[in-house]
Queue: 4 jobs
Job 1
Amino acid sequence: MQKLGMQTIKFDVTPTITSTACIVGPKESDGPLASYFDKCLDDEFWGEETWEKAESKIIKETVSLAVAKSKIASQEIDYCFAGDLLNQCISSSFGLRELNIPFFGVFGACSTFVESMCLGSVFIDGGGAQNVLCATSSHFCSAEKQFRFPLELGNQRPPTSQWTVTGSGAAVLSKSGNGPYITHITPGKIVDLGIKDANNMGAAMAPAAVDTLLTHFKDTGRAPSYYDLILTGDLGHIGKEITIDMMKTHGYNIKSNYNDCGVLIFDKATQDTHSGGSGCACCGTVFSGYVFQQLQQKKVQKVLLIATGALTNATSAQQGESIPGIAHAVSIEL
Amino acid sequence: MQKLGMQTIKFDVTPTITSTACIVGPKESDGPLASYFDKCLDDEFWGEETWEKAESKIIKETVSLAVAKSKIASQEIDYCFAGDLLNQCISSSFGLRELNIPFFGVFGACSTFVESMCLGSVFIDGGGAQNVLCATSSHFCSAEKQFRFPLELGNQRPPTSQWTVTGSGAAVLSKSGNGPYITHITPGKIVDLGIKDANNMGAAMAPAAVDTLLTHFKDTGRAPSYYDLILTGDLGHIGKEITIDMMKTHGYNIKSNYNDCGVLIFDKATQDTHSGGSGCACCGTVFSGYVFQQLQQKKVQKVLLIATGALTNATSAQQGESIPGIAHAVSIEL
């Protein structure tokens, strides 16, 4: 591998995304991308006693499916990179504790899926691994309870708020294979422009997405038009518009080939999800389902996936802190 | 780099630990290792309004000190790997948000310091980075409040309990340098033998330490006697004894060259810390202070550092879950 510019790494042994898998909850199953997901659940508990245990089950089953689809024996998978939104990433730890694969816990908030792909790719290109597993999850109920209010309170959600995706996305990356290939990564810096509204994560994270996008284009010498699709993770409708506007002020028009997983996953008109989807699984499931199939069918050939994360918690919000954002990008090409 | 056996990676470009830094709180400043720390604080707040903000300040200042000691310009540091025990790792995110270095959030509970060193070393050996920064923190007050009970309650601590270290440890790793070198890493699997007592983390984590130790010896063909010092991160007195016993049942006698950072950092007889120190900063500060100086002075030449983490949270404990453990090992040699 080779460092390009300030933040980007260009791979020599471009890792192949061998397989992906995704399982989603009931709300996502009613959305426009339902047919692309491997499994659509019809309740939020999936037979478990708590939302946290349900989330662990979702990531466990998703990982199991991704490994099965890869046709690689699980003992041939060298390392697993995973994390989630729950305090101390318990969804991943409990969901994957029986996996028996050396485990790197990752916390990038909603950028975790791409952060895991960045780390896994470096291990493969460097020669430390033949195959790695990348996974993440989120759950509307466990996230609302933890970050905002008890669901039982039934409080009203402001128009800027986003709906945490219930689900999990996982990918197996391999040293050898026929693509889609991970050709570059641009890990992001923490960016904090002072947004304090915990119900407007899109606005808090958009500046990080813009920072990483600008850096990626500068480091690689590529223009936005190089990509068939530039896709952010969970900025939602408001964050997407902010990103388009901010990129425009920097001289880049990304309107024609840019979209956001949080915009795609729900139908704004009928699903009452306000600014769209969010959560680690938003990017995880939309990429693992919809985008990966688009790549396999060659409907898109070059994708820049940028997952954004809000590095905040309930205590920091109560203590008057703003919301730092981060965005990691991965370039995926056939 | 080269994969050895099931879990270990052997480096070709063995990264040098260019500098380390550590700042500790008042209790640690009264302990036997006080003279090895860069800065000893005399109160838990360090002028901040909350314990969380104090912890962020501690990691921020520690990182700043590690970079200054490395004599490497911060813009020459390619990536930062950091995490902590607070929900959503806010100590690291807030403490390092002005760092302006691409950031990988890591969650390995108390194994975070070594997990960060593992990831950073792979980036360096692979050619993706010239210099990386690894950091972690913990704080007795913020951890007690979050994981156990309000400090104001003044509840009694059982004899198996450990005392979370207030402090931060940081290290700068570089492609070129005169050592100490990171020669191997053995990232661990999640191991859960069913311990449910949140006041006995040593017992919960010891099986993971043993699993990683056995794997490391098998993968590398080394015997425990190869190392001058085998050092676990925060098993404390009870976890240390369990580890010695379990290793013995597997045919390894590690008694003569094995110790634990949680045993070393406090004086059991006078400091009322029961089973010893714990927390991300336990391994982070003891390594960055005491052990790194021992290496520099060639009092030890070969160290196997194994940081252990308990992958649990307050909710999982309330929901009757056991405590999964993990242990990551890094081999450091002159």
Job 2
Amino acid sequence: MSIQQDYDPATASPERLGIGMRLSVHPHCDAFEEAIVGALADVADAGLGAELVVETDEVSTYVGALSEPAEERLAAFAVALIAAAYRRCGEGHVVAHLLFSRGCPGEVTCNPEKVGLPTPAPIHLEATGIPAVAQWSLYPLLDGSSKGGDHMAHIEAAIESAKARGIAASANHYATKLTGDLGEVVSTAVDAWTQVGAVVPHVVTHLSISVASPSVAAAKEGTTR
Amino acid sequence: MSIQQDYDPATASPERLGIGMRLSVHPHCDAFEEAIVGALADVADAGLGAELVVETDEVSTYVGALSEPAEERLAAFAVALIAAAYRRCGEGHVVAHLLFSRGCPGEVTCNPEKVGLPTPAPIHLEATGIPAVAQWSLYPLLDGSSKGGDHMAHIEAAIESAKARGIAASANHYATKLTGDLGEVVSTAVDAWTQVGAVVPHVVTHLSISVASPSVAAAKEGTTR
């Protein structure tokens, strides 16, 4: 039995809708292991793991949301983890890869005919003061019989929203470049993902985020990248 | 004008179909910068950049295929780069994140009604002798009017193929776990991606690969992970 087949707004929960993420954080400093372990501890100490399931395996960390506001909890956790790794890395270069997913949890079949999906409000995160550059991809997973229309139309609308937010979205191969405060970069991707999720029952977004990149620092100093 | 709208088997090329990848390689050793730069040089020296466009920016490296066999060229480049980073890292822990895409290049609109897409043969890569663990996601980007059917059916068929190859696919949240030789792990994901691409004009696959993970080594020694 799939989540979508028995979707009922009265009983739906983030857990039943399969709202969660996977993330990998790569601090590029010598003490990278301590930076990762320490950053996870910092985020737990700050209480950001509340109402989340956090499971780290040999490839990445799964974080699932147990209650509302699910999207904001996930985004706040991701931003705090990246910021903590950056601080523990001596404000050094950190790259993180994030996958946010909703709908069709596990290998179950979804029913794309179901509508009436939840429409969460935009999330609010504090500015971190940490400038970030990201490459962002959005995957609305329609079916042949879906009412969601054209998957590229959803993607184009999301890019226009990012441009309107001043996140300076520009097209790269297979991804859109986002540039801004770490919190705003993550909020932009998460808001687009939830907005598509109000129409398309299964939607995934991927975000590769770089902070304190040596090539960006070199460019600011006027040298070549 | 989109690639799909004017797809013609007689004139189609990997470049016109937008066949390419983005990858980030994270060597987790102290000399991580030298490992990345050195690995890129090793792969170029081995001639694996032939008939590929390779562009590194502050977040990841874009690799586009200019000629056939496009999928095999991309996969061989990715495997060689990860293997070179692993060797330069003292056979240490390396994590790589890969995105393979075909169809709908840039932000153009695709025409999902077009069929007659190419069906490349399975790729062949040498075994590397490097054991790998990966988390793999496949995104068949259908439209509401597509003939490609149910996106989950394509994903389930791909997982069954991976199981049949003995890559020990098991389900994780939002990803399928693949375990095996680095070359076979990448081949499995690439073959599934091209197979879906014969039916669905726009398909993307993501792969997070870990080699020489300290947690796997600990498990082999009988200690806790």
Job 3
Amino acid sequence: MNSRNGSDLRAFFQPAGVAVIGSLREVMGTAYGVIKNMRRFGFSGAIYPINPNPSKYGDVFGSKVYSNVNEVAQLIDLAVVITPPPTVPEIVEGCARRGIKAIIVMSEGFAESGKEGAALQRKLADTVLRTGVRIMGPNTFGVVNAANGLVTIPPYTDNDKIERGGIAFCSQTGSIGPHQVPLDDWAYPVSKMCDLGNKCDVDEVDILNYLADDPETRVVAMHMEDVRNGPEFMEAARNLVARKPLVVLKTGRSEAGAKATASHTGSLMGSDQIYDAALRQVGAIRVNTWQELWEVPRTLLYQPLPAGNRFAVITFTGGQGAIAADAASAAGLAVTDFTSATVRKLSEVFPRLGSNPVDIGPAMSDSRSQSSSNPFSALEKTIPLVLGDDNVDCATITFSCGKQLVPLYPMVVDMLHRLTKDFSKAVNIWLYGTSLSAMQEMARQLQERGLPAYLDLDVAIKALGCAAYYSRIKSSLRDWENSKKRTGNCN
Amino acid sequence: MNSRNGSDLRAFFQPAGVAVIGSLREVMGTAYGVIKNMRRFGFSGAIYPINPNPSKYGDVFGSKVYSNVNEVAQLIDLAVVITPPPTVPEIVEGCARRGIKAIIVMSEGFAESGKEGAALQRKLADTVLRTGVRIMGPNTFGVVNAANGLVTIPPYTDNDKIERGGIAFCSQTGSIGPHQVPLDDWAYPVSKMCDLGNKCDVDEVDILNYLADDPETRVVAMHMEDVRNGPEFMEAARNLVARKPLVVLKTGRSEAGAKATASHTGSLMGSDQIYDAALRQVGAIRVNTWQELWEVPRTLLYQPLPAGNRFAVITFTGGQGAIAADAASAAGLAVTDFTSATVRKLSEVFPRLGSNPVDIGPAMSDSRSQSSSNPFSALEKTIPLVLGDDNVDCATITFSCGKQLVPLYPMVVDMLHRLTKDFSKAVNIWLYGTSLSAMQEMARQLQERGLPAYLDLDVAIKALGCAAYYSRIKSSLRDWENSKKRTGNCN
């Protein structure tokens, strides 16, 4: 019954009416909590709280409570179920009979908890096969759609808003998502989120197909513990990668990690080498750390793809340039040599400029080469020369943030935006300094102008390395398409 | 004349009287700026501003201005020189004649800037050889001593205080130091800092000898671009490592990094393999990134050395446990199996507990196993069992920070301190969540109780891996000492 059609998941993300089935006790982790979240983030569809004792509640956040989905006359295309596990199969069956197409089963206590739970989960899978209903979960926090305020993921409630943007996150656990990066302080641009949970039905293949077609999503980031169907996954991933980048954190790199992953999901996994080869073959960007999973996508979202991997870095101190050069090599970037024209022009800015990394520290502290009205005139002169160089595909600019400089940030951000926007090169900014709050403020202002800022140098450079990697994938896909056209060969 | 005696550097860090020679214009990067910093951080010694036009200034921050060091009758044991490069050799010569033992030459424009500068720097080296005066620099920001407020490093001025603590930082550029990590928001525990600059005299060997003897310093972190004398460096490093851990970020890991390093320092370097082997041989902890240089020392400072590399992790979600297990393997840690007694006791806390990584998420969301008065009772019961296990040497505890939880932090921090303090195991805390400000607040409170907190999971675990590595170094040194005693063999 699973047609594996991307549009299948539409009801999970764009439902007109949502039944939320479970306890209406005013605490988190209940149906009440889900409804509260949806109201808070301004969900634009209808909400139908479902509880056996509707008279006890009257209404919840303005929505009338019903005792059963069958009592609701209007269209319901999504049901969210948070009830004790033994009750779930019957409720789900009832939803399917009612014609509800999509069900998110949030309840825990299924395959992840032992034999009894596994038997209950098999019943859900059976309902899927018999009725064609689609189930996300069980053991999931559900979904986020930043476009319509559909937010079922409970931990999201610490934030006051969701920054609507182009990055989709898909995870196998609701505790891993952009709601676990500092969203309130420094908004993270999200399109959709999805916690697949135990995957009794909807799995990574469905979500990849859906996100490939989703016009709001420009980059997909995925936390993956296992894959249910290898060939299908590869096809879906390959299809998505042809259209947008796919960043994957796959756990189980090490033996210990594989053991921990298996114990968490209860699933059998193949060896990491197989996953690694498969991810490489489909052109996915495999990242290795929690931080990279969130941070790499931002450069992919905000910046043009670099034409190649030739990297430049502009620093305020030579010591950092050497650290950046090591990081670039580790990220697969080549620290480029400038053209002789650029070398000449740089040396006209300041005699010791000309090589890459570009250390503008001496120029900045030299009063002769500095304009008194702009303490960053060395940046002003250097950035266009570096980004305009034919040997440069991408660059990191480092910037020292101090509290004393905060009043200057709007001017600096304007300048950085103005100097970088006309080059089709991937640029990001590494911020360092004495004050984390100052760095956050600067990062926020830069992001508003489409300049991704990082508090970690290595991650900033890694993000450019990943962008260059994806650029190579894209151009090899193009070459392959072109050769197909020329030879008429479809393989 | 260089006796390479650790106590040689005492005048650089504990001078009774300091002459600061240079412009008294009220801007940063002048003698005025240095004096301002020293006053601000409460330097306890005497300060003598030296300027050819004393009548122009009268006094600077309460210190009378002199036209020449010879006019000062009192003891001067340190001079700080920030004058135009061509004037420096004569000034330094004058200081040496005056009997001043230590000179910090802050001025730029020596070997790093070309031929002329290199000639000037040779004059300084010549003065050292002839007179026995010790020179730090040129092209240095100088020193910090948190114990007496001697702060010559200009960029430090964005901070209002220095957190006095046990970590010494030594760098080859003043732009790399703990004044470039968010010190004001989350104080970094510093004993001494030192920017070696161009190393015309004082070099890494001197500073290692000094810091080995310094009772305030318990961990040494070093940014290194090159080494002047390999065998001497190895001896000094080996001597230090026998007493305290040495964390080194050596740039030039890659070809591009080596080229950038050479161009920055103007020095010839050996191949990275040689450095790597040497650092390994002396038992230094080599780290790879900017962040690791600051973050690894904190676990070494605050926590006992683990007896071995057997690692446990307690998380709020199984997905993170798997990520942590991969990170542990990468950091050289073994994700341990608990003893059968611990497995039994954990399963009594909650049926699904017992394996490592320890996922307390299900126990926390299960109302039966939770106390209503303490939402963290699952942590309360689990931590002592995990840390008490004979198979566990070190552990990371992860904690989700939300703004809503801030009022609970004092209680949580009390609890974490109480539950961890009686085990001689290395423990650190990884904080994640929605609010960076909440995470910072929690980190600050934890650090006050001696629990190092991290905002990056991989760095937290890497720090434990480094602690386990150093523990192995220490025990092999002990074994070697013991075998020497037994055999009477001195080699």
Job 4
Amino acid sequence: MNHSTRFLFASSLVAAVLVASTAAWSQQSPKPEQLIKWRQSAYQVIGWNSGRIKASLDGTYNKDEVAKAANTIAVLANTGLGTLFAPGTDTGKGWHDTTVKPALFTETARVGELSANFSKEANELARIAQAGDAAAVKEQFGKLNRTCKGCHDDFRNSN
Amino acid sequence: MNHSTRFLFASSLVAAVLVASTAAWSQQSPKPEQLIKWRQSAYQVIGWNSGRIKASLDGTYNKDEVAKAANTIAVLANTGLGTLFAPGTDTGKGWHDTTVKPALFTETARVGELSANFSKEANELARIAQAGDAAAVKEQFGKLNRTCKGCHDDFRNSN
């Protein structure tokens, strides 16, 4: 596993809240496998955008690229990823078998706290990225990544 | 294939521009398979969010849910999905074999036009969704979906 891949793994799972907004789904009730596929996809997209920021920080800084990527992560952090961790999705296969730990479905207070931290740091990164100060982005990007790791450590099985 | 699944297929591929922002990737050069996996993931996330809007329109309208979903689609439409269609990604396997048609890599003017339409209609839906008028959202959602179909028809193989 090269550096880039490790980085993407580290960024590809984030905290999520368990409070499902069930109203909008009442007509369709997506199957657990669909929910798992969607959340695996969402974390891939977060990983892609984290990679864009890292590439800019490691190479030639591109303000527009970083701003777009940070904004994308922030929107995903706030869109309601927690709804994709509905009851019954503790096991199952989306693109691949889920790597979620059962504890995510019981330790709701802790998961909510981690999820809020993720949103907070993602929003702050999106704000800072608009200004285009690479050093400030780098520092905030580190804070964001620590919120990713915080959730991975407790609620994701390594694969 | 049920209605929901058909809908998600219809929403899961959208127009993309071919102008790659190569600067930020110069240090890492993601492999074609990674780019394909990211774009397949991005369209899944778009499909998820399209499904949220449709579920709200078909069931009990949830303004907050629709606004979040429309905003997520708009951000993805503007983040630079075209960079995931870099040269060399006309064939290959991400989560699955790509369904892109070779024409997407040559008909750049047409693809750029479809991509711009997608962004325009997605931005407009996000704007309208803030106001919470379900009828207006429904009409604009139809316009957005037609931009999806416009690109699918020409540049995606059915599978």
